[in-house]
Design a protein that fits this description.
There is one protein chain. By secondary structure, this protein is an alpha/beta fold. The protein folds into 2 domains: 121 residues, Immunoglobulin-like (Sandwich); 363 residues, TIM Barrel (Alpha-Beta Barrel). It contains 11 helices and 25 strands. A hairpin with a 4-residue loop joins strand 19 and strand 20. Helix 8 runs parallel beside helix 10. The chain starts with a strand and ends with a strand. The relative contact order is 0.15. The mean pLDDT is 97.
Length: 499
């Protein structure tokens, strides 16, 4: 099978915001307790932070981490998570039917972000709480001193403000599973008034309004339209959430889910632009795709968990090679929309539907989905290019015509490298990819990294952490300014071109 790709240096989508490679830590399962935080572990430091996990997080170069939820945040009292640890209350977490001991809290998380070399994306509780609690939290985190909440922070041993700039105005408040579910009118008004208060404190804060919990919610996209009609003037982003599954074990449909993601993004962008036009507005509302991943493997096991425990083994999907391919196509979709998707958070980072897994008291390892995110974070920063891809397709009952190849193209920040991320969806056909670079005829192929495995259900685990790993393919001589490369069946490929 043959396919052709064409790039022109004059045709670009937009700059890739580094926060598109973000992630998420929620007080859920073993994301915190037994994940990033495990006092007494052989590789834990004096603060209880697992250094083996931190190294893997730094390897991913995660620029932003959303915290502390997620569904958890909608009944969370942030005051419970600060101050002397011995005086913090144990609370029942209604979202996940677990116990939150509040041993690891706000200031511990901010200390962890420094070691992880990342920044915080802090979520506010607009489910059971509102403007006053949100304003107090921002003051606690960001004001230097000489006010009640900032002085309280200083009394907790944190002299300097955290300086958190990115805030989520709640989480999934259209969902009936959410504590404090709201109508779009109720939420829109609350989001506007909360945003107004926060902008009075600091106009430079970046605020994310809550969008629909997924594309299939009954009020989508009217929810977005109504919410933004209320708070358009005060917010900068609207959230997008979606998870993908293969419960029917239907590989062709599973691999085509990025087409659904693409349509979802287009629908949200169109709704944002409609409200901008209606408001006679001058600013675009950008998208924060701050929950996305494959999630379904652990669904049945989670039904059997004992409720009201600390750090249960919850949402612990063990990812297969085919999941990694799907994640690769989802990353490509985000990159192809870099003009409007400015933030994205793979949910989540450790143990809970995550690229990194740990055993309590044991080692940490990389799941299969670690690799596409790693490659994209390492080589995907720069300018997203508008590529033309001519490739055969297959017919699918859910998504219609599905191209056998899925691709994105990124020109590096220094302009010296172009990287193609390509997934071959074909189960049995090597695809010969050819093409050319207009205006970049000096570039030649210098590296081809491939993630491929003969078993689509192959996994990485503690006993076999390197079962599914990328390999460098030999680079054959290629004419300058041209692409001539073979892509293995069912593979994730990173092609790097330099002068």
């Amino acid at each position: 099978m043959r396919a052709n790709i064409h790039l022109d240096k004059e045709f670009t989508v937009g700059e890739v915001d580094k926060r598109i490679f973000g992630s998420f830590i929620e007080h859920l399962g073993r994301a915190v307790y037994g994940g990033i935080f495990e006092p007494g572990h052989p590789q834990a430091d004096k603060d209880g932070f697992r250094q083996d996990v931190l190294q893997l997080v730094r390897d991913l170069d995660v620029p932003v981490v959303r915290y502390p939820g997620g569904n958890f945040v909608s009944s969370f009292r942030w005051e419970d998570s600060v101050g002397p640890v011995g005086q913090r209350p144990r609370r029942l977490d209604l979202a996940w039917k677990a116990v939150e001991p509040n041993i690891f809290g706000l200031n511990e998380f901010m200390a962890w972000t420094k070691q992880a070399k990342t920044e915080a994306m802090m979520a506010l509780n607009l489910g059971t709480r509102g403007i006053e609690a949100a304003s107090a939290l921002v003051e606690y985190c960001n004001h230097p001193g000489d006010s009640y909440w900032s002085d309280l922070r200083r009394s907790h041993g944190v002299k300097d403000p955290h300086g958190i700039k990115l805030w989520c105005l709640g989480n999934e408040l259209d969902g009936p599973w959410q504590v404090g579910q709201k109508t779009p009118e109720e939420y829109g008004r609350l989001a506007f008034e909360t945003a107004k208060a926060l902008k009075l404190f600091d106009p430079a804060l970046e605020l994310v309004a809550v969008g629909s919990s997924n594309r299939h919610m009954p009020l989508f996209p009217q929810w977005e339209a109504t919410v933004l009609e209320h708070c358009y003037d005060k917010v900068d982003y609207i959230s997008v959430h979606e998870y993908y599954a293969n419960r029917a074990n239907d590989l062709p449909t599973f691999l085509a889910n990025s087409i659904g993601m693409d349509a979802f993004i287009n629908d949200v962008v169109a709704t944002c632009d409609f409200v901008q036009a209606k408001k006679r507005g001058k600013k675009p509302i950008h998208l924060s795709f701050d929950e996305w991943n494959v999630w379904f493997h652990s669904n049945e096991a989670d039904k059997k968990l004992t409720p009201w425990t600390v750090g249960p083994a919850q949402l612990e999907d063990v990812y297969t090679f085919e999941d990694a391919l799907v994640v690769g196509t989802l990353i490509n979709t985000l990159l192809r929309h870099a003009d409007r998707v400015k933030i994205a958070c793979m949910a989540q980072l450790v143990n809970v539907i995550a690229p990194i897994m740990t055993r309590n008291g044991g080692r940490a390892w990389k799941q299969t989905i670690f690799w596409p995110l790693y490659h994209a974070s390492k080589f995907g920063r720069g300018t997203s290019m508008n590529l033309k891809l001519d490739v055969p397709f297959y017919e699918n009952a859910t998504f219609g015509q599905v191209p056998w190849l899925d691709a994105s193209a990124i020109k590096s920040e220094d302009g010296k490298t172009v990287t193609l991320f390509v997934v071959n969806r074909s189960p049995d056909q090597t695809i010969e990819l050819t093409g050319s670079f207009a205006g970049m005829e000096h570039l030649k192929l210098v590296g081809h990294t491939e993630l491929h495995h003969g078993d689509i259900k192959a996994v990485n685990n503690e006993a076999h952490p390197d079962n599914v790993v990328p390999r460098e393919k030999p680079v054959k001589p290629t004419p300058v300014g041209q692409v001539t490369e073979a892509l293995s069946p069912l593979s994730w490929n990173v092609l790097r071109f330099q002068a």
